[in-house]
Amino acid sequence: MWYFSWVLGVLLACAFGIINVLWLEAQESLDQHSSVLDPLTKLISRVEFLEALEATIEQCKTNRAPFSLLLVSLDAFKSILDQEGNESANESVLAAADIIKRETRREIDTVARYDAETFAIILPGAHAPAAETIARRICDQATARLGSKACESVVSIGIAEYPKHGCPEGVGRVLEEVEALLRATDSTLKRAQRQDGGALVCA
């Protein structure tokens, strides 16, 4: 009888050990998943966005299909933060994230929180005119939901198309292509921000 009790004890110990290992692995996987997401918007963070941009460029070099990159600045963020506080500013970020997700419905599109007040969007297969149409919808929705007399500009959007605005002749390494495309997109974003009332600008 003692033999069966001993075997049962061993089996239970093994079972609890396996359950504990599986729980730890699941927790580690959850922690890793959480670390790649922006805690407020649940969009991917800047690091994962840059990895996605590298992968998209590599794919473009293979299949020759263009794509567009958008940087969306929530220009009202600082004004809302200064006048209404952190909670209201976070609400405006969440609203902007919701608008962007609604206007980029394709599974192949990538949306990220690039920094506190800026979102980044990768639109595979989209030339600049198609990207501009989406950007215009984002602008209109943001103005309708977040616009106020206190904020002259709600959002500004910069747009650049790859490979058109990658390295000259497309001969750069992937990291060089990423830097060139980001510079082009950031330049258009700054031009948009300099316009009265915010706007969108294509490179």
The oligomeric status of these chains comes to single chain
Number of domains: 2
| Total beta strands | 5
Q: Give the second-level CATH assignment, the architecture of the largest domain.
A: 2-Layer Sandwich
Here the CATH topology of the largest domain equals Alpha-Beta Plaits
Shape: globular
Helicity, as a percent range? 55-70%
Number of helices: 6
How far the N terminus sits from the C terminus, by CA atoms, comes to: 82 Å
Topology:
Blueprint: H1 2-35, H2 46-63, E1 67-74, H3 76-84, H4 86-103, E2 110-115, E3 118-124, H5 128-146, E4 155-162, H6 174-194, E5 200-202
Structural write-up:
Mean pLDDT is 82; it is low at 21-34. Helix content is 59%, strand content 16%. A 5-stranded mixed beta sheet has the order 2-3-1-4-5, with helices on both faces. It is globular and about 80 Å long. It has 203 residues and is an alpha+beta fold.
Question: Characteristics of this structure?
Answer:
single chain, 203 residues, alpha+beta, Alpha-Beta Plaits, 2 domains, five-stranded mixed sheet, 6 helices, 5 strands, 16% strand, globular
